[in-house]
Design a protein that fits this description.
299 residues; mainly alpha; Leucine-rich Repeat Variant; 65% helix
Amino acid sequence: MRKPSKLEQQLAVLHGSPSADDVRAALHSKNGLLIAAAARHAETAGLPAAFAALLDDPVKRDPVCRGKVAIARVLHERDVWDELFAAGVRHVQKEPALGGPVDTAGELRGICGIAYAHCRRSDALDVLADLLADPEPVARIAAAQGLGDSGRPDAAALLRFKLRTGDAHGEIIAGCCESLLALQRDAALDVVTSLLGGDHAETVALALAESRLPAALPVLRGWVADSLPAVRRRVGYLALALTRAAHDELLEVVRTGSDADALAAAKALATFKDDPSVRDQLLGAAPRALRAQIAALLA
């Protein structure tokens, strides 16, 4: 049996209940893996220096930015602002990969951008605007979230611009929709509903549903009614279920729809299977021929 390496032994200690000396030693090691494992145990005061050390020869010391990401996450979770976020949001780390160099710092930039929003930095919108155009999708997703989390009405203009210009990644469109709806509520419905006819219609529909805006429900009903059967069953019924205001009509689909529609509506309602009233209503609406399959959805 192979004996664990020294690094593996150190990581095992850090993933358990390390002593203060173990944590300090890891932070001073300049090894991204060790620092990532130690970050959540470390005192806040020791984290900025460890982060700075990983910016020196970062590809060698901290491949894939594990240590820097861990430190940024810990400080963000502790609601502590540090200038390392300013360095992190600008950091680009090109690492060799099959097909050419890959930037592995997108997640780091995203976390740091969100920290700008949560810490109410005066230049947060400038930082998030840059991230919204970042080459890495993970950074753009974070920018969309950060703009919504900022709570600033003027962030809506950036989100509207991004939605009008588009993005190849549906997660980014969804994030922008969610943030815009959170900031502007009904005033955002015009731009969001206009996207229901586009390439990311399904993610837009789910964002509308998650908003729980009463004015979104008739829009979603119309979209579901006009959708192809496959789309209706895959996403449409789920969107209606997520509004929490269309359960009665979905129960009617379970009772009277085709087997395919009944099962799709039941699956959507089963999202809330931990609610006893939903379970009881769904079992009560289940046709005898589908009762076993619907019961399995609730298991």
